[in-house]
């Protein structure tokens, strides 16, 4: 009698994209390291080029970073995501959430290249016990992609030494327009330049608000050291956002630093840079 293998359970993460499953997990002894920011090669930052970023939001079993991170690390080493337009990724965790920032050469709407990391089958099976869908309407992996609703970048060139921080908060569902308005009003003034902000991207997933903040590393460090001088300006933004945004876990939140997600895997294509 012929036996058939049942199909694997689809992954909540659409960045994983189809190959074969190894007989033994070669990433079993790998480890992951945490960081609060993610950096990219200086070659990415020639001129004003920035990668096109998607953000995937899922739930993750707390403490499973060391199970999920090595899976992606292995396939980022052994396959070539850059051949499919993916030139970087950062995996982050925050209060039971899994955040996957995918960096592409260009918007898939322009390139037509929508596939992510090769080896979907292997990755889906490996991370399925730890990573599960977030939205209540989830039916397929594309529903894990957060909605992008605001971008701000300064005019002209900025420092090549930049870092990305991912801030996670709770939001009132449907308030994207109000949140975008608050940031647009602030970004129209001098605060972003004074604090070294070189880019801002806002995303939503039902009641989850994700803020990708790119900053000049030197200026960002100076602001952290002398935060009090910027307190009035920051306080106004926070007050204007307060009807729409709040801490994701108010019972444990004490300061804005408590809203920063932690990076547990970072990969950038080692042999690619933007065309001059």
From TrEMBL:
Residues 1-29 are annotated as: Disordered. Residues 1-22 have a biased composition (Low complexity). GO terms for biological process: polyketide biosynthetic process. Gene3D superfamilies: Dimeric alpha+beta barrel. InterPro entries: Dimeric_a/b-barrel, Polyketide_synth_cyclase, Polyketide_synth_cyclase_sf. This is Polyketide synthesis cyclase. It comes from Geodermatophilus obscurus.
């Amino acid at each position: 009698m012929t036996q058939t293998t049942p199909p694997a359970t689809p992954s909540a993460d659409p960045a994983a994209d189809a190959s074969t499953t190894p007989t033994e997990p070669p990433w079993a002894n790998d480890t992951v390291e945490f960081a609060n920011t993610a950096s990219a090669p200086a070659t990415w930052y020639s001129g004003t080029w920035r990668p096109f970023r998607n953000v995937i939001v899922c739930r993750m079993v707390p403490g499973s970073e060391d199970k999920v991170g090595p899976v992606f690390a292995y396939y980022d080493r052994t396959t070539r995501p850059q051949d499919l337009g993916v030139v970087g990724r950062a995996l982050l965790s925050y209060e039971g959430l899994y955040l996957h920032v995918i960096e592409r050469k260009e918007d898939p709407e322009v390139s037509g290249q929508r596939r992510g990391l090769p080896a979907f089958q292997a990755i889906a099976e490996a991370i399925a016990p730890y990573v599960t869908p977030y939205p209540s309407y989830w039916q397929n992996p594309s529903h894990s992609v957060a909605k992008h609703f605001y971008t701000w970048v300064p005019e002209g060139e900025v420092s090549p030494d930049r870092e990305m921080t991912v801030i996670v908060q709770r939001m009132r569902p449907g308030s994207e327009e109000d949140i975008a308005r608050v940031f647009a009003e602030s970004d129209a003034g001098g605060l972003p330049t004074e604090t070294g902000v070189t880019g801002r991207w806002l995303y939503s997933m039902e009641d989850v608000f994700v803020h990708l903040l790119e900053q000049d590393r030197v200026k960002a460090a100076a602001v952290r050291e002398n935060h009090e001088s910027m307190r009035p300006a920051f306080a106004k933004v926070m007050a204007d956002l307060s009807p729409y945004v709040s801490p994701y876990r108010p019972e444990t939140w004490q300061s804005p630093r408590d809203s920063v997600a932690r990076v547990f895997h970072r990969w950038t294509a080692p042999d690619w840079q933007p065309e001059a």
